Every structure is written in structure tokens, then in C-alpha cells.
Amino acid sequence: MIPGNFDFHCHSAVSDGLLPPAEVARRAAGNGVDLWALTDHDDLGGLPEAQAVAEAAGMGFVNGVEISIEWKGVPIHIVGLGFDREHPALTGGLAELRSGRIERAKRMGDALAAIGIPGVFEGAKRYAGNPSLISRAHFARYLVSIGIARDVPGVFQYYLTPGKPGYVDHRWATLEEAIGWIRLAGGVAVVAHPGRYKLSGAEMRRFLDDFKDLGGQGIEVTSGSHTPDHILHFARLARHYGFHASRGSDFHGPQESYVDLGRLPPLPEDLKPVWRLVG
Ligand code: AMP
Ligand code: MN
Ligand code: MN
Ligand code: MN
Prior knowledge:
single chain; 279 residues; alpha/beta; DNA polymerase, domain 1; 2 domains; seven-stranded mixed β-sheet; 41% helix; binds manganese (II) ion
């Protein structure tokens, strides 16, 4: 089947999205998505429910995940698609990543207490639908609720980004680990929202060289966080590297995302769509 509207990047409350997997699935189908992947951060727990509801709604479904890595000190996200969700290399690697998140969240709480905002770890935990997957997004929502900033982007800007008081360094997975887990489980590795990283043009090319050498096959060209210029730029890089192109809204919830499920421009027509590898 040739999908008319595929969306391979979004989140449910299993990570830092606002809706349960079933509601994300129904919303995607309602928006006309015909091939869909749920890609929660570092956790596969939403996939069975997402698949059951997607299939009942007549929508094609692909297993997905968004893995947090660090490359030369820069935090980067790698989307995995079309893998066996029971594979122990992938489930074991992700379990370890999640335990690192809890430890990091405690250090974030300590850092915020040190500037006079106590109890934030406990507060953020109440916003996490999945106690083992606590994200800066949950910290941001709690900090908005106690009036520290007006909205979530404001909290990130003043408290939760590098150099700001609530940001702590953390060791995520390596690029090699993330691509290795995905490939061992039979899936395809895709660079998530490349327009968001703080990399120069030369650094981005070095990163993509490494990604390709390690077995990476795809790159998000159309993304909820890409401008029209980003789409042109990353389409050129996809052609240069021979990568398959992906398309994903990165939807987190109706109140927080500018781009809704499936509501993105189409991929440039000459690119190889990544669904050919996993659909
Ligand atoms: P973490 O994986 O815990 O580092 O949290 C990263 C998540 O925070 C991302 O997946 C987004 O959902 C959210 N996020 C990151 N930066 C921003 C920002 N500037 N404004 C709003 N949300 C953000
Ligand atoms: Mn997120
Ligand atoms: Mn991301
Ligand atoms: Mn995402």
C-alpha cells in the first residue's frame, strides 16, 4: 500500500505526551493518517495499545521509539522504526536508559532546590504518566503549575536548557548503542528533527558520516519543528547520503504542539520515503 499521509514521530503519556496511546491513535486516524508510528521517548510500553486501536481504525501501524543519545557531548534523538518490540537487546538497552532518567531527575530537583525552588522532583513525578519515564517536559509542566513561568517554552528558556539552573549534564546512550539496538531488533534508525541540534554545518556532516557508518538509514526531512528552509536543507543531505526520508509531527498534545498529527507538508517527491523500508 502507498500511504497518502504517514506520520512516524509522536508521543503518548507513556513518555511526555499528554494523551494515552489509544487517544493518540484515534486522533491520528481522525486526521487522515493512514500509516502511523508511535515513538515514545526510550519506552515501548504504549505500542500494544497503539497498534490495537490503529488497526481497529483501519490505519497501518509501525512500531516506533525515540532514543535519547549523546554524540560528542551533544544531546541528539534517534528514531527507531519497524523493529521487533520484544527483542532483548532493545528492551534491555531502553530499561537502562530509563533508570538513568530517574537519577538525572533527582539531580535536577536538587539543582532547583539550590536556587530556592524545593520539591520539584516530587512535583514533576506527579505529571509523569509513567513513573519510569520522567522528562524535562514533566518538570516544565509542574513549574508552570506553581507559577515559576507562564508557559512550558518559558520554563525551558529560563530553567531547563544548558547553562540554566535546572539543567544537569547526563550520560545518555551512545550513537553506536542506539543504532545497534534498533538493528539487532530488525528495525531502521532515523535521525530525529535534525534542524533542532546545535551543530555547525561541518559538525552535522561529521555526525551524519558516523550515523551512516554505524548503519543508520533514514533522516526526518519533514518535521513539526522544521522550517521550509530546514526541509530544503535536509532533503539535500538525504540525497547526498542516500538516506531514506521520514516525516513526523512530533505531536505531544493538543495544548502543547503547534503541529497536529499528520498535518505536515509532503516529502519532496524525489526522495525515497522511509515507509518503503518498514511499511
Ligand atoms: P528530556 O528527554 O527529558 O531531555 O526532555 C526533552 C523533551 O522536552 C523533548 O522531547 C520535548 O518534549 C521537550 N522540550 C525540549 N525543549 C523544549 C522547549 N524549548 N520547549 C518546549 N518543550 C521542549
Ligand atoms: Mn518530548
Ligand atoms: Mn526529540
Ligand atoms: Mn519527539
